[in-house]
């Protein structure tokens, strides 16, 4: 009879059940590589030995606490922990606190001069020690945000095939049609609450990067945890690989995705439908699905298609809109004007620009302006010129039609700015330098305090730099950008331009949505997020030239946004977690991830001493029939 191999890790149940289903084989069967590995099972250890955040001590060996990044504390294990867990002697004699480790991380990351090397160091840290990584990120967010996300993440995506080290997230390909659910089942975590998904078609302003776009979902979800305290095991990054139209990638020997042109049309749409259904089947109807960096032609279609049937939002449309409108709310404190008194001009008419415009309209309607009047305040320019009902070039598909004006067509942006005389100029075009000195000077000539937002990412795609904006407006511009810019000195005053980073918005919205089990996410939640962010901007922030608070305050902002989203969810009947908490902040805080180390030893406790009770004598009991059997013998 065969003895069953002793298996460890999350895969043990699957392997054990699969082995039980296999027919018995001859003992003389030749030894294969797999049986050899099984016979040497004590050396087999999975990368993640635990799932979720509740550890079952009987299923984890001592060595797991060093090998599993969720359990590893490095040199912070105490002497008692090392001895009891059986890892004493496997580490140097030094004992460190988590604070000492954080100092070492700061020294280590600052040794690198190139941002990509810093990105790789942080990725390696996450692979080794998860709590240390997230605490380091959360406590140094101003320095680390440009590394873990824009602009460095764009470079990481471009070099993805070169720097790829370890799986983090799921790759679902078009070749998996009909089996998407089977692929999702392979993810070992049973309690996923938030998914960030991309098909890699429009990564930042870099274009179609295909499977190399996985860096975006990974980076976004790292910020979910670092900025809002969402537990990392509840987060799942997914890359939908349907090919790429980027010839350079298709010919790149290091490219890791499917080497084929993108699948489009009905086949593509059906595949996305299958993906959405598979997520709900595996994790439930309230699973948050954040769409990220899909092509413009698909982003709005999917948002309109799924927003009322799934718990989903598109960060490029709604997140960008929310952070931009927050900046506009803050600008009102400087200009003294309401939204209804502004004339807006957008350079770009893609998903980001349309999203901002739609939320601005919603904000104006909330101020008492009619829908028609609100839309009349907004002008847009795309690659074919001003959006007009009379132009012959280009098209007005989808949401663009709402902002087309019955005027003569115009193509030159400088002429358009001169004619329309906008108070607010917003760039979401990914066209570097499109805000020329002449345009900026015209804005300054027409406005005492012109509002200029250059929101395109990464920095190389910005419509203008902060220095150009301040220099060409005599320092009077109210400026914001999508990527960080250094301080600018004009005369005797130094300006510190604020970055309209979506990270101010999406972590807090996600926390509120996940905690309440919200069914669907209305635009009202993003307007609430804008207001909460704008309310946190201090007079000192405005004085130094920033429409946003310091990045170091994002965790508090995320909590305030989550509280507002929570209230909205219950007020609108969208929540599924009951009863409604009275102290919403305390309730949310109880659900957050703990960045600090916890004891690695099982909890022990003392039982009361058993009272003495005299027991009766123990007499052997004869089994029925024993006496007769004895007599017969």
From TrEMBL:
<dbReference type="Pfam" id="PF00390">
    <property type="entry name" value="malic"/>
</dbReference>
<dbReference type="GO" id="GO:0005739">
    <property type="term" value="C:mitochondrion"/>
</dbReference>
<dbReference type="Pfam" id="PF03949">
    <property type="entry name" value="Malic_M"/>
</dbReference>
<feature type="binding site">
    <location>
        <position position="457"/>
    </location>
    <ligand>
        <name>(S)-malate</name>
    </ligand>
</feature>
<feature type="binding site">
    <location>
        <position position="202"/>
    </location>
    <ligand>
        <name>(S)-malate</name>
    </ligand>
</feature>
<dbReference type="InterPro" id="IPR015884">
    <property type="entry name" value="Malic_enzyme_CS"/>
</dbReference>
<comment type="similarity">
    <text>Belongs to the malic enzymes family.</text>
</comment>
<dbReference type="InterPro" id="IPR012301">
    <property type="entry name" value="Malic_N_dom"/>
</dbReference>
<feature type="active site" description="Proton acceptor">
    <location>
        <position position="220"/>
    </location>
</feature>
<feature type="binding site">
    <location>
        <position position="292"/>
    </location>
    <ligand>
        <name>a divalent metal cation</name>
    </ligand>
</feature>
<dbReference type="GO" id="GO:0046872">
    <property type="term" value="F:metal ion binding"/>
</dbReference>
<dbReference type="InterPro" id="IPR036291">
    <property type="entry name" value="NAD(P)-bd_dom_sf"/>
</dbReference>
<dbReference type="InterPro" id="IPR046346">
    <property type="entry name" value="Aminoacid_DH-like_N_sf"/>
</dbReference>
<keyword id="KW-0479">Metal-binding</keyword>
<feature type="binding site">
    <location>
        <position position="316"/>
    </location>
    <ligand>
        <name>a divalent metal cation</name>
    </ligand>
</feature>
<dbReference type="InterPro" id="IPR012302">
    <property type="entry name" value="Malic_NAD-bd"/>
</dbReference>
<feature type="active site" description="Proton donor">
    <location>
        <position position="149"/>
    </location>
</feature>
<feature type="domain" description="Malic enzyme N-terminal">
    <location>
        <begin position="126"/>
        <end position="307"/>
    </location>
</feature>
<dbReference type="GO" id="GO:0004473">
    <property type="term" value="F:malate dehydrogenase (decarboxylating) (NADP+) activity"/>
</dbReference>
<keyword id="KW-0560">Oxidoreductase</keyword>
<dbReference type="GO" id="GO:0006108">
    <property type="term" value="P:malate metabolic process"/>
</dbReference>
<feature type="domain" description="Malic enzyme NAD-binding">
    <location>
        <begin position="317"/>
        <end position="570"/>
    </location>
</feature>
<dbReference type="InterPro" id="IPR001891">
    <property type="entry name" value="Malic_OxRdtase"/>
</dbReference>
<feature type="binding site">
    <location>
        <position position="293"/>
    </location>
    <ligand>
        <name>a divalent metal cation</name>
    </ligand>
</feature>
<feature type="binding site">
    <location>
        <position position="501"/>
    </location>
    <ligand>
        <name>(S)-malate</name>
    </ligand>
</feature>
<dbReference type="InterPro" id="IPR037062">
    <property type="entry name" value="Malic_N_dom_sf"/>
</dbReference>
<dbReference type="GO" id="GO:0051287">
    <property type="term" value="F:NAD binding"/>
</dbReference>
<protein>
    <recommendedName>
        <fullName>Malic enzyme</fullName>
    </recommendedName>
</protein>
């Amino acid at each position: 009879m065969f003895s069953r191999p002793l298996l460890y890790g999350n895969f043990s149940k699957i392997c054990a059940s699969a082995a039980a289903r296999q027919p018995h084989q001859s003992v003389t069967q030749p030894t294969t590589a797999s049986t050899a590995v099984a016979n040497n099972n004590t050396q087999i250890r999975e990368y993640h030995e635990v799932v979720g955040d509740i550890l079952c001590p009987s299923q984890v060996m001592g060595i797991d606490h060093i090998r599993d990044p969720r359990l590893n504390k490095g040199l912070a294990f105490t002497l008692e922990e090392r001895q009891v867990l059986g890892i004493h002697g496997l580490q140097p004699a030094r004992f460190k606190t988590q604070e000492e480790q954080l100092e070492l991380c700061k020294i280590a990351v600052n040794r690198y001069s190139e941002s990509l090397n810093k990105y790789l160091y942080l990725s390696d840290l996450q692979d080794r020690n998860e709590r240390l990584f997230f605490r380091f990120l959360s406590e140094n967010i101003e320095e680390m945000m440009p590394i873990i996300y824009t602009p460095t993440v764009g470079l990481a995506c471009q070099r993805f095939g070169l720097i790829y080290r370890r799986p983090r997230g799921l790759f679902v390909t078009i070749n998996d049609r009909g089996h998407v659910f089977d692929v999702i089942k392979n993810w070992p975590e049973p309690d996923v609450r938030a998914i960030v998904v991309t098909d890699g078609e429009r990564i930042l302003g870099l274009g179609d990067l295909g499977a190399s776009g996985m860096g975006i979902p990974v980076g976004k979800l790292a910020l979910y945890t670092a900025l809002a305290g969402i537990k990392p095991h509840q987060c799942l990054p997914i890359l939908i690989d349907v090919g790429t139209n980027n010839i350079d990638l298709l010919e790149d020997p290091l490219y890791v995705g499917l080497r084929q042109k993108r699948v489009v049309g009905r086949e593509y749409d059906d595949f996305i439908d299958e993906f959405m259904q598979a997520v709900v089947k595996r994790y439930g109807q309230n699973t948050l699905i954040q769409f990220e960096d899909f092509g413009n032609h698909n982003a709005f279609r999917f948002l309109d298609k799924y927003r009322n049937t799934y718990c989903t939002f598109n960060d490029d449309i709604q997140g960008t809109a929310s952070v931009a409108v927050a900046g506009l709310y803050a600008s009102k404190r400087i200009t003294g004007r309401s939204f209804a008194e502004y004339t807006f001009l957008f350079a770009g008419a893609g998903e980001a620009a349309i999203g901002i415009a739609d939320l601005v309209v919603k904000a104006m309607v909330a101020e008492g302006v009619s829908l028609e009047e609100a839309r009349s305040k907004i002008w847009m320019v795309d690659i074919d010129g001003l959006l007009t009902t009379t132009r012959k070039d280009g098209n007005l598909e989808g949401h663009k039609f709402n902002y087309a004006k019955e005027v003569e067509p115009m193509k030159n942006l400088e002429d358009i700015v001169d004619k329309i005389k906008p108070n607010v100029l917003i760039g979401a075009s990914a066209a570097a330098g499109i805000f020329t000195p002449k345009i900026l000077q015209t804005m300054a000539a027409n406005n005492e305090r012109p509002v200029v937002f250059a929101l395109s990412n990464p920095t190389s795609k910005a419509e203008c730099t902060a220095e150009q904006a301040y220099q060409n407006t005599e320092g009077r511009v109210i400026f914001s950008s999508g990527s960080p810019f250094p301080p600018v000195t004009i005369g005797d005053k130094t300006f510190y331009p604020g970055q309209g980073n979506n990270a101010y918005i999406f972590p807090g919205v996600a926390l509120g949505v996940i905690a309440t089990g919200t069914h669907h996410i209305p635009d009202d939640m993003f307007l609430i997020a804008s207001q909460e962010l704008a309310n946190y901007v201090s007079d000192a922030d405005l004085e130094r030239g920033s429409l946003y608070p310091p990045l170091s305050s994002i965790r508090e902002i995320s909590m305030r946004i989550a509280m507002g989203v929570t209230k909205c969810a219950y007020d609108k009947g969208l929540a599924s977690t009951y009863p409604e908490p009275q102290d919403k902040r305390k309730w949310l805080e109880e659900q957050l991830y703990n960045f600090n180390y916890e004891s690695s030893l099982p909890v022990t406790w003392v039982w009361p001493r058993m009272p003495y009770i005299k027991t009766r004598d123990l007499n052997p009991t004869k089994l029925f029939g024993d006496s007769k059997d004895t007599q017969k013998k």
